[in-house]
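Lay summary. Proteins are chains of building blocks that fold into shapes, and those shapes determine what they do. In this project we predict the shape from the chain. Here is one chain we studied, written as its sequence of building blocks.
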Amino acid sequence: MHCDSQQTGNLAHFPCFREAGMMKEKVPEYDAVFSNLFQEFDSRFEDFRHNASDFEWFVQPFTISVDTVSDDLQMEPIELQCDSELKHKFRSLPLTDLYKCVPANRYRWANRHK
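And here is the predicted shape, written in a compact code that computers can read:
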């Protein structure tokens, strides 16, 4: 979106350029800068995309789809989602406190976050 806007000279998403009175003719000079910046962000956050299912399990352990979990851990979310006591704690405690209540001997994945 930003690259397209910038290439067409639309400065709606670039208020500093607008305020500085930047001429639309100068905007293409920044194509390479913006392109490199977006590529850098893309590579910096690749790990987040790669670990998205782990983050989802950590934040929403009672709604995660078992299919998104590695085969060796698939029974853990099933058992966790059936644990009514932990489900109640999930609703009433901050996430950081919830993981203190998760039994280490039953849920090894969840306990990596203690």
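What the prediction tells us: The first helix runs from residue 2 to 7.
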